[in-house]
Amino acid sequence: MPKGTTSRRPRTRAALLRAALATFAEHGFGAATIEQVCARAGYTRGAFYSNFSSKEELFLALFDEHSERTVRRIGERIAAVAAEADLTVDALVDALVEIDPAERDWYLVTTEFTLHAIRDPQAAWVLARHDARLRTELARGLTAHLARAGRTLTADPDEVARLLVAIREGGLAQSYVEPDLLPPGHLERRFLAPLLTALTAPAAPTAAPGDAGAVPRDPEVTDQ
């Protein structure tokens, strides 16, 4: 493969992903065509098929990209807060419920693909694998961030991650239908802190550095 082709491939892929998100949001995943994605990106069908085997694979690449970006943004936001002050559950919730204005397009696209997957067992199986990877990252990050806030989960982290996703997606559905009455993130901002508090307990205190290897004194033993 010529060197120039290799160096252009990431740019081509990125352009196709951007075009796919806009095209799927405008026309719907089912109605959108590969030709429309290529035209918006300014590439040929050949360029598309050198990066993706199907429209479904294109969506899953978008899904993974969005998941990675979301997890990274939450982590960066929490790290910034923790650098200024002690992390609290309220501050953690603020990072979790931050909604980018562009999220509406992604919500339209992922909701329609989810409906497609519910009708198609093979698509459902594949989507579930990608969902599971996202939940693993969310559960790992949530456990670590709660520990920094002095809390530990008392429920299964994967199930808590499922609950958080359900709350976010359900809240956004209502917000996008009634944006003036229910701004995006409003329900999560109001109820996630008490929910996380109910699903956690104070973390066990850590031993002081000098006490890490200490052995409890036997009350029956007296000094000689």
TrEMBL record:
Residues 10-70 form the HTH tetR-type domain. Residues 203-224 are annotated as: Disordered. Residues 33-52 bind DNA. Pfam families: TetR_C_6, TetR_N. Gene3D superfamilies: Tetracycline Repressor, domain 2. InterPro entries: BetI_C (IPR039538), Homeodomain-like_sf (IPR009057), HTH-type_TetR-like_transc_reg (IPR050109), HTH_TetR (IPR001647), Tet_transcr_reg_TetR-rel_C_sf (IPR036271). Keywords: DNA-binding, Repressor, Transcription, Transcription regulation. Transmembrane segments: none annotated. This is TetR/AcrR family transcriptional regulator.
